Amino acid sequence: MSPVTPADPLAPLTDLPGVSEAVAGVRDALVAVHNHPANLRGWPAGAAEAGVRAARTSAALDGVPLDADDSDPALVGAVRVAGAAGRLLSVWRTSPSQALARLHVLAASDLVPTGRHDAELGRLRAGDGVADRLALLAGLITGGTRVPAPILVAIVHGELLAVQPFSSANGVVARAAARLTAVVAGLDPKGLAVPEVGHLRRAAEYRSAAAGFAAGGADGVRTWLLHCCAQWEAGAKEAMSIADARA
Questions:
Q1: Number of helices (H) and strands (E), helices first, in the chain?
Q2: Cβ contact 164:214 at 8 Å
Q3: Which terminus of the chain, N or C, has fewer Cβ atoms within 10 Å?
Q4: CB distance 193 to 229 below 8 Å
Q5: How many Å apart are CA 233 and CA 231, to the nearest integer?
Q6: Which of 103, 197, 210 is nearest to 154 (CA)?
Q7: What is the value of pTM for the model shown?
Q8: In this model, does residue 4 exceed pLDDT 60?
């Protein structure tokens, strides 16, 4: 008798109206970015600039002014997260929970009082099924689904915003986790896109779509997926502008 293959829990999402078309649009946009002449060899410079822009806009989504001083603690944390992304890729592939804890330490070290560091940094909130939900998410990241990468990226992002696993800096952590997923899943393997710019330009839509995703239901999930795909396309345009400036 052949072993029973567990059903892919995310597979139905590919059939939601408009999702497959949105996924194709993201892929086409990012292929064009990676094929830009400036990114064929000199891509590390583009990735570095993308990381800086991602950090500043991610902090802005959590209320930090775009023109904030570089010493702002939330911005400092977001920049630390961006700088550590490359070193966390291998951990993200095999132990996402460990990587999330490290992301929180980097993001929140200047936000959590020194006397609370041991109790809060990298520590999950108690209750609300946080640990169980993150374990399920880790299973998806490490091979528990075969859905297209843009869908997985959006699910990781949305679930972390919904669960709020840490005491602080959950937005920065969620957006960084989405970027790591995009790299590992092959959607944006060089980390060139800046979808955070799109989320910030449509901040009200971002928050509304995230709330709809957290509430559950096909309509809420579909709206979130379409929003995320659209902002990854916007992030690809941002990456093109970075590449054009370097060409």
A1: 12, 0
A2: no
A3: N
A4: no
A5: 5
A6: 210
A7: 0.95
A8: no
pLDDT tens per residue across span 154-210: 999 999 999 999 999 999 999 999 999 999 999 999 999 999 999 999 999 999 999
| CA–CA separation, 50 and 242 (whole Å) | 8
Listed in order, strand segments (DSSP E) in 56-106 are none
Neighbours of 173 (CB within 10 A): 28
- Tell me what pLDDT residue 246 has: 87
Q: Is the pLDDT of residue 1 over 80?
A: no
Q: What's the distance, CA 195 to chain centroid?
A: 9
Q: Which pLDDT score is estimated for 128?
A: 85
* Residue 141 near residue 9, CB atoms below 8 Å: no
* Structural domain boundaries in the chain: 11-246
Instruction: Determine the Cα angle at 122 with ends 165 and 170, to 5°.
Output: 40
Interhelix angle 73-94/96-108, nearest 10 degrees: 170
Cβ count within 10 A of residue 153: 27
